[in-house]
Amino acid sequence: MTKLLIIADDLTGALDSAAPFAVRGLKTVIACRPRHMEAALTQRADVVAVSTASREGGAAAARSTVAEVMLAAARAGIDKPHQIFKKIDSRMKGHVRAETLEAAEACGANRLVVCPAIPAQDRIVWNGAVRGRGVKEPIGIAGFFPDVTMDVLAPDAANDEDLERIISSAGPADMLVGAAGLSGALARALAPAGFARTAPRLRAPALLAIGSRDPITLEQIAQLRERTNPAWIGAPNGVASVNTADGVAITVLQMLPSNEVISGDQANRNFSQTVQRLLDRGIESLLCCGGETADAVLAGAGNGIIELKGELLPGIPAGITEINDKKLLIATKSGGYGDLNCLADIAESIDFVESCEID
Prior knowledge:
Number of domains: 2
Order of helices and strands: EHEHEHEHEEEEEHEHEHEEHEHEEEH
Oligomer: single chain
Number of helices: 10
Largest sheet: 14 strands, mixed
Number of strands: 17
Protein name: Four-carbon acid sugar kinase family protein
Organism: Paramesorhizobium deserti
Strand content: 15-25%
GO molecular function: ATP binding; kinase activity
CATH class of the largest domain: Alpha Beta
CATH topology of the largest domain: Rossmann fold
Family: Belongs to the four-carbon acid sugar kinase family.
Keywords: ATP-binding, Carbohydrate metabolism, Kinase, Nucleotide-binding, Transferase
């Protein structure tokens, strides 16, 4: 029986908030879209996370998608407030109110406990507002829930101990709403004490699909190329005619700008098609850098299910999925995440012999 359903408005959020449960040994499955939920719920997972892919659309459509998710959850017996975790952006982006209220009303919650703090990223909640790194002005949480009939609690959290107190004090009729900080505290409460799963490693030959143009990512790519000298393929607007070379352990496919102006969605679709073509040439593992990159690749191919196996490094979740009728290890990294050496460190730890399955 699934213990917890995580509802996120994008794939990166689903992966990031679910990863702490996988790291601590709970079977954790990701549904890349609501249409994949039924298959995910048959996996006998402890934790299922679903991406509604609703952040960029309208509020009405977002609420309708969450309603669809909650109906599927109810059919599977997941219909109590303590079984639902509503993942939201730590800076309150997207349709926070519409999606949260839809989930809360569907499961009969009496109170929302809203805390999007991520202390590990120096982002906290203090005096009912989000503050810290990347937040120019405090973001008041109560302002997102005016005229709400149920109680809305926005507890302060400046460290992991604060988050753990929030979890321990939550009642059965409270629905938890937060980001990776709060989900990490919940994982520590649900998972066996002291258990830690062995970190997965990419298996050669590996493809690093870099869709992000974040300056942090560009610095990481420069460091990767300096330290490991991988094969490199440029993809203007997501299109590349070159294939991976036989015997190459690491190939970097990097989205580049082009003189031809096209939409971001079209560039991502092009990039996804290029990635799928390269995967057909014997690639054993894939790292997608950039949330839209990972979403486009997984939306365009595969069965829409990822069984998380842990993290390559903290904040870089990895799991097993099936693309083009082949199982492979896939990892994701947000564009602005990680230190200068993280991609090079991952590349240098690539597994050349053993299976990518985790014991």
